[in-house]
Specification:
224 residues; alpha/beta; Rossmann fold; four-stranded parallel sheet; elongated
């Protein structure tokens, strides 16, 4: 007996039309019929289609994915399929945007649920960043401001070397800091800012593998 929960809960089915417009004929389909149609579409499209499933998706979605994993791992799969016309990313906005940056000109990245957002990615808009910098400066912690990147590929996503640390770290950002407290840079962008006991970084230590672990270890030891 299957222990899987339905693809959509009763509440989700009742309110599905509020999330994004879908053809009426899909709203009343059973889970079994949806499975059959998805499999048929995959067979028809063949190599023209690649489905990426983030690991927090439900099993009912993951079972159709060609690749599963975290957002960075999945975005990297796009380059392995230059002949695929359609990249379906079962995740949230920033994940699909990352895949789109890495996709070819003739490839189309599709986010199935246009209402899918990430609370962490959406927790601060540009105006809030400016307020944050003013607060930090007002508190005497660190002076500076947040500026939108104007050159190069935006968003700036991928691995890049940080000069003072002589290590390569993972970046994913569209804004950067301007501060006299910068202590390390990556391609002329502030990568580390320090003042007293305050340390701020632009890269993602938690996504930077061994280099990120070494950085965090060194940071923790400096506080002892």
């Amino acid at each position: 007996m299957s222990t899987l929960i339905p693809v959509l809960t009763a509440y989700e089915k009742e309110h599905l039309g509020e999330r994004q417009p879908l053809p009426e004929r899909y709203l009343s389909l059973s889970d079994e019929e949806m499975d059959r149609r998805i499999l048929a579409a995959k067979r028809t499209l063949g190599r023209r289609l690649v489905i990426l499933g983030h690991h927090y998706q439900r099993d009912e979605v993951i079972k159709f994915a060609d690749y599963t994993g975290d957002s960075y791992k999945l975005a990297g799969q796009v380059s392995r399929h230059p002949d695929a016309e359609f990249i379906v990313f079962c995740g949230v906005h920033f994940m699909a945007e990352s895949a789109d940056v890495l996709s070819g000109d003739r490839q189309q990245v599709i986010l199935p649920d246009l209402a899918a957002g990430c609370s962490m990615a959406d927790m601060a808009d540009p105006e809030q960043l400016e307020v944050c910098w003013r607060d930090l400066e007002g508190l005497g912690i660190v002076p500076g401001r947040s500026v939108r990147l104007r050159e190069g590929r935006i968003p700036r996503i991928g691995w890049a070397e940080v000069d003072r640390l002589d290590e390569t770290f993972y970046f994913a950002h569209s804004y950067a800091a301007e501060t006299p407290c910068a202590t390390a840079h990556s391609e002329d962008i502030v990568a580390v800012a320090e003042r007293g006991s305050f340390t701020g970084v632009q890269f993602h230590p938690e996504k930077s593998g061994a280099a990120g672990a070494r950085f965090l270890e060194s940071l923790c030891l400096s506080l002892v």
